[in-house]
Amino acid sequence: MNKKQIAWSDRKVGQALGKARVRLFMILLMAFAVPAVTFAVNDPSRDNIKVAAEVTGSGAVLAGMGLIGNISAVSDRESAGNQIGYIVWLIARDQIDTTVPFPAPNADREVGTITLKAGEYMHSFEAIKNTLKDTGTGEKGEITTDHTNTFTFIMGGNPVKLMDFLEEYSGSEFIIIYRECESTDYYILGNPCKSMTLKSYERKKDNEAKAVTLTFEGKSYRQSLKYVGNLVTAEPDTVAAAATNIPVTDNPQYRLSPNAAPAAIATVSGIASADYGRVIDILGITTGANPPTIPDSAVFVLIDAATFTGRTGSKISFRILDDATLVEVAGTRYQT
């Protein structure tokens, strides 16, 4: 044999050995993997998905998606356009009382009432109908995903207050609340850490229209959340010192008063059937001693039966169940 024939023979032998090694590896893999997966499927004492994931090496992905679960299709009613109301509430970041934690979303993506500084209120902007847009995008970069939330709406005319707003607040940071049309649901975008910035505006006064388009943008992975808190537009009602009853009115907030001696709130009054389902906020005292307490009872149903003490800075929210029953809203309690 010459050198070319010897080299060709060596290559053929090498290829044959390589194929034999691959076949042996596949046989061994099947010998171990098939019994493991079969055991996972037939053993009710273990998490089948987790065991199968351990064999395939994709456990982290399956476990994470397990928390999400299945996502079903929605009806045309839920996916139709023009489903955002025309009133927007803008809360400037400097209006928020940062001494009180900003409400965190609960497991149902619900956010409670935002605590504002004394004398500050939520102000509404009435937009042109069907101009509000709440959009979010996410794009994977080299290191991480870039998230962008955008909210836009158009205000009609060039009124004085709107012109003042543009001059004073361009580039400022806001929390945005808006309502869904034909629904009692409100939604919120932004928080003090990741707020929505008034990034741009476009004012026009021409033969087409006299209007201003406002565009807010925020860089956060958080998408819009459901707002179950109250719109703070007036001073809270004051619960008198030594009172054991809270008279419920149209006001969504009630401020407790200090007492000469310890006292507990035990009852409510003034609730009508139209109030059923409303959420009210109970705020702690502003100064003084002997703050009132609200113990767990048939009237005030508290989570884990834990008594609420209305010290300075404390707050709690209740949903009105009927004319004599208020239930604590999960995630709304802040106890100093």
Structural features, described:
The structure is a single chain. The protein is an alpha+beta fold. The chain is 22% helix and 31% strand. It folds into three domains: 3-68; 76-227, Roll (Pnp Oxidase, Chain A); 237-328, no CATH class. The strands form four sheets. Strands 1, 2, 3, 4, 5, 6, 7, 8, 9 and 10 form a ten-stranded mixed sheet that branches. Strands 11-13-15-19-20-17 form a six-stranded mixed sheet, with no helix packed on it. It has a two-stranded parallel ribbon with strand order 12-14.
Kindly state the percentage of residues in helix: 10-25%
Residues in β-strands, percent: 25-35%
CATH architecture of the largest domain: Roll
Order of helices and strands: HHHHEEEEEHEEEEEEEEEEEEEEE
Task: Write a concise keyword list for the protein shown above.
5 helices; 336 residues
